[in-house]
């Protein structure tokens, strides 16, 4: 089977149906790149119907809203129902595709994944969350064991697994018993591509943070660090995108709120001096690539997948998680040295252009996708 004949069916809970017209939407870039190399015939999204959605919410009720939302997403009942709806959608597409490309693991491709030929691209496992960030692992006892059993079933029955990071690859092999030869690290791509640096300025002393999960992404440590930054660089500004309400009012800190307009977000990347997100847990971090694509040096943490994304001292700076003083020093050093921020920013953009686009990701996936289809034909 030649490459251009290979037909792919997307399977995901994310809203990427308009991937051709809106390739900058979160995760849409993956399917747009797959479509450029193969043929994406459709993307199915087996979200829970409203009655089931509200029943699941009721069963997983918790007084803390954020915890409630998380418990609902990793409900074993919801996993089974999503898988059931996935099976109905897959049956409707029978004969129209050669391979399923599933994104993330909140469901399986049908109630019995052994019946389907699929590959999986994802960025995290439940056991990584359990080990490194307990708030993302709310299940206990039998529910916890059932979730991991179903997750393992999805991993072990995939033709190939495409983790974004080596951090994740090791978990799939060591925690879930997956065959190392079937687990291929492919990275992730920038959802924006790259921006022009012709009129880019690095002397504005503006740090940009983008993230809804403010506490997990190191936002509170960033605020504590900013007090020291402001004393050293009183003209510096910190733009915070994501949280709906300010956590603290500090000099130079601007709470921009949620930015759903991708063009507006791109403009913020264009105007910033650097990007900062010192996460306490970050299994991947696609926003780093968005920022790097616009020529921004990135400040992240020394844990999880961030050292695989940020080349410390070349495309940005890595600091210990949860420690405001080293974070403040890194911000002061880069915001106060426009030449260094520019050199790192340009190196960061070059990193995206040479290996970190979605087309690069799909190029790494392609031989295994073709092999998966060839094995199925045999």
Topology:
Layout: E1 7-11, H1 28-37, E2 39-44, H2 50-59, H3 65-73, H4 76-92, E3 99-103, E4 118-122, H5 126-132, H6 141-157, E5 160-163, H7 166-174, E6 206-210, H8 219-232, E7 237-241, E8 253-257, H9 262-271, E9 274-276, H10 286-293, E10 297-301, H11 306-309, E11 316-319, H12 324-335, H13 338-353, H14 358-377
Parallel strand pairs: 1-2, 1-3, 3-4, 4-5, 6-7, 6-9, 7-8, 9-10, 10-11
Q: Mean pLDDT, rounded to whole units? A: 94
Order of strands in the sheet with the most strands?
8-7-6-9-10-11
CATH class of the largest domain: Alpha Beta
Query: What spatial form do the alpha-carbon principal axes imply?
Result: globular
**According to CATH, what is the topology of the largest domain?**
Rossmann fold
* End-to-end separation: 12 Å
Major sheet size, sense and barrel closure: 6 strands, parallel
User: Mind telling me which CATH architecture of the largest domain this is?
Assistant: 3-Layer(aba) Sandwich
Query: Could you tell me the radius of gyration in angstroms?
Result: 21 Å
- Relative strand content: 5-15%
Low-confidence stretches: none
By DSSP, the count of extended strands is 11
Give, in order, the helices and strands: EHEHHHEEHHEHEHEEHEHEHEHHH
**CATH homologous superfamily placement of the largest domain:** Glycogen Phosphorylase B
Helical content stands at 40-55%
- Protein structure class: alpha/beta
Number of helices: 14
State the domain count. Answer: 2
